[in-house]
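[job 0412] stage=fold_complex status=start
inputs:
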Amino acid sequence: MLRGRMKGFFGKYETEGFFDEMFDADGNVRTHYAKILQRFAEMDRASFESKRTLAEKTYLNQGITFTVYSGDEGTERIMPFDLVPRIIPAQEWQHLERGLEQRLRALNLFLHDIYHDQRIVKEGVVPMEIVRTAKHYRPELVGFDVPHDIYIHICGSDLIRGDDGNYMVLEDNGRCPSGVSYLLENRQAMKRVFPQLFSRHAVRPVDIYPQALLEVLRYVAPHENADPTVVLLTPGIYNSAYFEHSFLARSMGIEIVVSQDLVVNDSCVYMKTTKGLQKVDVIYRRIDDDFLDPTVFRKDSVLGVPGLVNAYREGNVNLCNALGTGVADDKVTYYYVPAMIKFYLGEDPILPNVETFLSAVDSDRKFILDNLKNLVVKAANESGGYGMMIGPKATREEIEKFRAAIIADPRGYIAQPVISLSRSPCYFDGKLEGRHIDLRPYILMGEKTTIVPGGLTRVAMRKGSLVVNSSQGGGSKDTWVLDETEGKC
Amino acid sequence: MLSRVADSCFWLSRYIERAESCARILDVNTQLVLDSEMQNGNADSDLWMPVLSTLEEQELFQSQHGNLNGDDVMEFMTFEKANSNSILSSVTLARENARTVREQISSEMWEQLNRLYLHLQSPAARAAFRESPIGFYRNMVDSFHSFQGITDATMTHGEGWQFLQAGKYLERADSTSRVLDFKYHVLLPSGERVGGDLDITQWMAVLRSCSAMEAYLKLFHDRITSWEVAGFLILHNNFPRSIRFCVGELDQALHSISGSGRGHFSNEAERLSGMLRSSLDFTTVDSIFQTGLHQYLDQTQTRIAEVSRALAETYCRWL
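[job 0412] stage=fold_complex status=done
writing structure:
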């Protein structure tokens, strides 16, 4: 309906046959984007540029940066931020919320099961071989109970939309999902540069996240301690996510500690303070399992706290997420999540997986090897966009490299059809162009499940690219979930 | 509070104060040089050596530059990364410490410090410096003052703030003693007499670099003598950059941290700061000059360093 009247930036916008978040296939604006399109159409290039500069300056001054090293000089860059928000209507969000809650419930039941009776293995739903060979499976934790049986307290499940606009789960991040600080800061930046937009839309707020997280962390304290000491354990200021660690600790009002701040005495964890040693009950750790305790896992880890795992096993301290959750975000385990949902909950999955082939299964492997140039191949235990090949864009050499790797280690790889992720208009140099995006919501599980409305929308900034990870040049944009009462605009 | 955090707050504050002192000294010396060039075309080395001596940087500078000239000294003390006491290095170190305690300090403090750091690295800072070094150093000092104001106005005056106070006043006491000593390193050219015009100009420079000119003149009107300037900057009880005032505030901060009453001590840092405080309370300018000003300042610097060591031992011995 607005098609004929599209002015300014949107004058020449092309959806190029992809599913576009803002426009339908005929080029008509989707109703939930109508108001914002109208606002943007009123703006000229100069005023949009000045808003963009203001946003960038906000990030730089606050130190919301990651460090890029070249030579001996590290330069701090901001994560690219796009000013065109992604909007999710209320009903669409309710559907996602139900699906994500269901999925995390099943994943936690799965983790409890494989670290106890292994019913799902005995009943032939998931092969033991897959569990046993998962890189992050911790057999030494079998039989160990965690408070309230919650393993993944904080989950980041990546959602994508394909050609038909239906949402699918691409992967689950059940170890230390990061990025939530960008979600919160993006909202702050948008409020600062486009205050009027928020008064025209009923956008659900996101700033409850830190308090909801703290509630979860306090709930899972050992021995039902009603007033536990909670700390956030970071690898340190040189870690690329340090800004986020510090941001979360500040927003929750808890101490941020590095491993040298902690010491284990008599199987209890203490922090070193100016008034002596103070007992710690819950550790929100942003360090991978392998680096937590040099006496148990990697001996060369300087990040860890000697004796920490022992204190954990004695039940004197809780770790969030729990040890050993990595088995659930192995990409081969991912294949079985819909089956887990059926098995544990007796429900149909609300959010489907992306169609996945396991090279560990003979028939699938043959299919994968015959179709490498049409598939996306992923290493089962890599993240951040590493260890991945997009067939149609790969060179012959890369394809052969992956072929050899799959044959050598079938358990280590999966393949999926190439999905042309949905696109959202992004501002580039005076005009708007479509870029592929995904969505990472953050799901918290404590006494109840809390999902901050929306999530982090990640953007593949390079034209045509399908890789949204920040380590691969991805950016982000603010994500709006509209309030139900707004319903129709 | 975590020992590591206490340590970072303390050093964050010391580096800020150190950078400010450095900017003050460079500002004042630049002005002094302009005055003397007009009077008698002295060599750059005579005019700039005192700055390096005061800041104890002669060796590193000479290993890098050999001959002394004003531009090199200013560059070395302002932007040189290899010089750990340059303004840029101090600000960088302050920011590194601030980064590790971001959840303790306010966002406003962090943003002010971060802006300052980004500015110092930018071409804009270089351009401003070339345009007017004096203007540049004034702006620096203003930025540090903003940081202090923001700190007082936005951070809870709890334990972390007390460690910031301790670091600030300890470093300030030390730098005031160094600025006073500056005069010891400035030689009067032959033909100039003590109490003569140039001598007075130099003492005025010392006062200015401590922002003490106006406060001093209120007390002593038109008399500027070594005796009274030293007495003012060492022993005045209310001027915020006098050594006695700074040691008093340091002592107060230490007692607030431990919660023990003043006039007594509960740890070695308090004992040493208390002793230094009472000796400043009961000293006269006469006895300082009997010891010799330079020797007295030297001893004071040593005693201040001992307080700093004892503080680390008391609160951060785990690290």
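[job 0412] summary: The longest helix of chain B spans residues 3-40.
[job 0412] exit 0
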